[in-house]
Amino acid sequence: MTQAAPSRFDIPAQGVATALLAFSAQSGVEVLFASDDLDGNLANAVSGTLEPIEALNRLLHDTPFVARRSDAGKFIISRATALLGDMRGRLRLRDGSGAAGVVVNLAGTGRSVQTDAGGRFHFPAVPAGEYILTTSMEGFRPLEITGARVSAGRTLILAPQWLEPHDDPTQMAPFVVAADSPETRRLTLAGQRRAIGNLDLGRTEDDVLPFIIHTRKEITRSGVIGLNEFLQRVVLESDAAGRPPEQDVNLNSFAVGSTNLKLRGYGSDETVVLVNGRRLPEVLNNVSGPAPPDVNFIPVSLVQQIEVLPASASALYGGNPVGGVINIVLRPEVDATEVTTTYINALSGYDAPQTNLALQHGQSLLDGKLRLRLSASFSETLPPTESELNYRQKAAQRAGTPPDPIFRATPNVVSASGQPLFGPGTATYTSVAPDADGNGGLAAFAGRAGERSLGFFDSAGGLAASLNSLDSPYARKQRRATWFGSIAYDLFPWLELGVDGAHVRTTINRGYDVFTGDLLLAADSPFNPFGEPVYVTLNETAPRLGQNRSEARIEYTSLLTGALLRLPGSWQLSLDAQIARNLSRYRGLAGADHERWQQLVDGGRYNPLRDTQVHAPPAAFYDEVLIHHGSPDRFVKVGDYATLDASARILQPSLPLPTGVGALNLGADYRRNRLRGYRDERRYADGSLASPIEEWSGRTLERYSFFGEVQAPLLPQKRLPVGMRHLEGSVAVRYLASDQSNEVNVAPSFGLKVDFTGGFSLRGSLTTSNRMPTPVMSRRLEAPGQPGSGLNLVRIFDPVRAQSYDVQASEALDFTVNTEEAVTQTAGVVFQRGHTRRFRISLDFVDTTKTNEILGLDAQPIVNLETLFPDRVVRAPLSPGDPLPAGVITTVHTGSVNASSRHSQSWTASVSYAHHDVLGGTLELRGRLLYFQRYTSRLFANTAKINQLDHPDGSVAGLMRYRANFGATWSTDHHAFGVEGQYFHSRKLPVVEWPAQGSSHIKPYWQFDAFVQTSLRRWLPWLTPKQDLVAQLRVNNVLNARFPHYTNEPSGTGIQPYGDWRRQTYSLSLTATF
Q1: CA-based angle 593:595:599, to the nearest 5?
Q2: Contact assessment for residue 767 and residue 824, using Cβ atoms and an 8 Å cutoff
Q3: Residue 38: its pLDDT value, please?
Q4: Mean pLDDT of 160-177
């Protein structure tokens, strides 16, 4: 960045646009500006012989504009409010004392300052860009600091530099150092620490560990209204085939949690989710299975960036991050108000909208000492249904006639004795005609001998929670409101106090509950026109109760208090405590009493031979058969889970060491988890008990840990070999214990990174993780339901019978499960060059070995492994004449077991390129590829090792060898356009699924998305400089690619959905800033 020769200037005070034209004519330097943006502003008079940059700074002094020089030597004029930042640094002598009185020059700006008594210097209001700093002091070798990049609205804190004395004044070549060093990155991020801000050390993509950073810009351009969807799209290591509860109709309406965030093929409970470095609490209720936290509790509008570490790191984060860590960093305080509204819908001719309205407001008072922030977000989702997507109906047509019993549109009837229903030689089965009221006798079945009802059930209107219904939703009808507020106050220059609180309320509906009945109609029943006993299989609803009777309300509340002490010598001490509570309430039906239902039929008070889609059940069905949670109109507690997290941190971001400047982070953490006791009451409409009351006492678990982390150069700068720029090491260790005697362990972590000249870097790490058996927190075990109760069943594919159907699932606890151990090793290479044209490529290898693994098995994996776990799969006896080798499955016992071992090896390659001067904007290209080299597991020591990539056994869901995403974006300060894509490699299936699939694998899938973003300011001339209105349109799956075929998809759709069930969608958002 060279300085131009001085010129003679004589420019009078006048309009800025006219003054800039005069400046360009007198200096011979081209100036770029938008004249409309400059109207109404006056420039200062400038006269004398000056360097062009100095003249331009004087001309624009006290105006809302600043100048910056492009690589082509042109000056670009922009509004200062959007482009200014600060730069701070410190110079030291060899003895560690501050170098006072040193002149520090900001090259190319004409600005210089002198260091104070402590060697500190400060350049305020520096235009965003990259700078070179030089120093001059008699008796010391000049210092040149390169690559000092200032960001708008941020403070760049440079790493302390040591001045080198020099006795020979004839040899004064400057000593060059890079501002973009590990020390600078640590100090910059540490300088942004707040009392209630990010508790973790600042992480970047250039760390020792292979972090992946997703920026605010990337999150905004995704067009989503929920973080889970964003992470599902961009985190390649997540379970591509998994569906979060809000998109999984198999689950209870009060089941929440980001169960799809299973990094690198490991369980969702092996991914640690943090918010500002603090654990996001799980959501525990009486639903069996893992209970991960729900990232959708955090509004998208509140997120600054997301840091993903797809590797183990127990020493840094505690818990059990074998799969990895996700840290959601919230936006910093800003003096602005922002309102964003987002609307998402399908492009396929039906209405399934998602809407969101978000408000952010930040304000500083008392000269910046008091900072307030308020946030509110409101979202609503109306899901598509089977009648609109038609997935299950097409799958049912391909599968042919299902086996008995059949629960479809109208009741199906089959002879109980095997005798013909319409006379000798006629069929033994029939079905009820549409619209039949059950009173038409045998004539109502005319022409229906041997005809089954195979269409899907159509409820009274609205949604219906049945996979056999046309109104079955492919997500959940949901409303969510989030409130967030924070206060930070600088009580003294060295003490900051802060409080923030959040409250999230989610209301969930799945529509009408649909009950399946398999009822016997006696030969002498007044409703029976056949003269033979018959079985009637039907779907029944309770339309009188309305489609929203079964409703869940999930409330999450948290309160965080913190204090940050800025101590002498750059030491920082932070103390904070966070309390959080997840409260789940449910009002609705728990099932139908099959025995009472049959009694109504036997007593002639329930006619099963009517079209249940049209004709409602009798009052006795509501009064005597339906079973309610608690009482009919009362919300009951199904989960009350509270956590208390307290932490203390001592941070030194500039620790003087003989080898250079390091960082030290010491801390202690305490966590208390408490699931409160509750009672499970199931009652009939009259209040009488349907089953004995189950009392559950709560449980409290306490864990505490101590840890330390050191990041430091391993050799002094002057002792590094030729060609080496930095040699940095990282060591961390955590001691964890709890009130359970078997939960005591020490988890160390080691890392190393070498930076070479030319832009090459090598990095590697070794980390350990120990996972204890999850204590039973009084979660209720799902008892097998009565035949025909049909509520909240799990769809499985039975490989023995080659059929998909619903079964009852119950959790089997194994109190002999032992602690597992895991070791993860990483190695990587990074190459990056340039700034205006920045190119970066990285390749990282991750190897994880687990022994004595705790394996959580859901219903489908248990069925796939029936030969190994025969006691966990309960089958009904074979029916007479059934040609298949085994009867249907009635119950599957899920739960955790100890496996022998698991070993995974994966490679991640990332490529990015940014050119900051393309058609007046920035062109960015990026791509990321995940490749699994190896993934093996051994269930028991005496069983064979399974290659889960090439010969899967079904115990690891959604595993594929390759997955990639990529994109290209062009943007300016006011416009952006981009195209993004995703690739899902073919997925190998277990051998037992090949016959039904007709293939050994699921085919690959490509998806392309596009977005355009623009500022509407030019069409709104009344907006002030601080106001803006930005519009964005995004279309996902622009080519409307069809999901690949998968016969055994758990919900019976016959496809493998990668992404939104709706396939092609659009997202329209408006963001107003003022």
Answers
A1: 115
A2: yes
A3: 73
A4: 57
- pLDDT (tens digit per residue) in 288-329: 555 678 888 899 999 989 999 988 877 888 777 788 889 999
Q: Which fold has domain 7-82?
A: Phage tail protein beta-alpha-beta fold (3.55.50)
User: What's the confidence (pLDDT) of residue 1?
Assistant: 42
Closest CA to 228 of 204, 215, 245, 203: 245
Return phi, psi of residue 493, to 5°.
Answer: -60, -25
Summary mean pLDDT of the chain: 85
**pLDDT for position 173:** 47
> Do residues 1007 and 1059 lie in contact, with contact meaning Cβ atoms separated by under 8 Å?
yes
Fold of the CATH domain 84-180: Immunoglobulin-like (2.60.40)
Lowest mean pLDDT among 104-113, 144-153, 587-596: 144-153
Q: Which CATH number fits domain 216-384+477-511+547-587+630-773+818-853+899-1073: 2.40.170.20, 3.50.50.60, 3.40.50.150, 3.40.50.620?
A: 2.40.170.20
Give the pLDDT score at 112. Answer: 86
Q: What is the mean pLDDT of residues 974-995?
A: 93
- List pLDDT tens digits, range 864-882: 888 888 888 999 998 887 8
Q: State the burial class of residue 664 (Cβ atoms within 10 Å of its Cβ: 0-12, 13-18, 19+).
A: middle
pLDDT over 60 at 783, yes or no: no
Q: Any residues with CB less than 8 A from the CB of 367 and at least 6 apart, and which?
A: none
Look-up: residue for tokens 């009694």?
A: 599
Q: Which two tokens stand for residue 608?
A: 């099963």
State the Rg of the chain over Cα.
33
Quick one: which H or E segment has residue 393? helix 391-399
Domain extents in the chain: 7-82, 84-180, 216-384+477-511+547-587+630-773+818-853+899-1073
* Spatial contact of 257 and 284, defined as CB atoms under 8 Å apart: no
Q: Who's near 596: CB < 8 A, 6+ residues apart? A: 624, 625
Burial class (CB in 10 A: 0-12, 13-18, 19+), 145: buried
Alpha-carbon distances of 218 from 221, 313, 912, 922, 968, rounded to whole Å: 5, 25, 14, 15, 12
890 in Cβ contact with 877 (< 8 Å):
no
What mean pLDDT is predicted for residues 36-46? 76
Angle CA 910–915–921, to nearest 5: 125
SS3 call for 594: helix
Other Cβ atoms within 10 Å of 258 Cβ, number: 28
pLDDT at 407 over 70: yes
The Cα 477–Cα 915 span in angstroms is 44
pLDDT at 3 over 60: no
The whole-angstrom separation of Cα 893 and Cα 32 is: 71
Query: Does residue 164 come out as left (phi exceeding 0), alpha (psi in the -120 to 50 range) or beta?
Result: beta
Q: From 326, 227, 218, select the one nearest 272 (Cα to Cα).
A: 326
Contact 88, 154 (CB under 8 A): no
Q: Which of 371, 355, 357 is nearest to 483 (CA)?
A: 357
224: pLDDT confidence band, cut at 50, 70 and 90?
very high
Which residues, other chains included, contact 423 with Cβ-Cβ below 8 Å and sequence gap of 6+?
Answer: none
Asked whether 363 and 375 are in contact (CB, 8 A), the reply is no
Helix (H) or strand (E) holding 665: strand 660-675
CA dihedral angle for residue 220, residue 223, residue 229, residue 231, rounded to 10 degrees:
-30
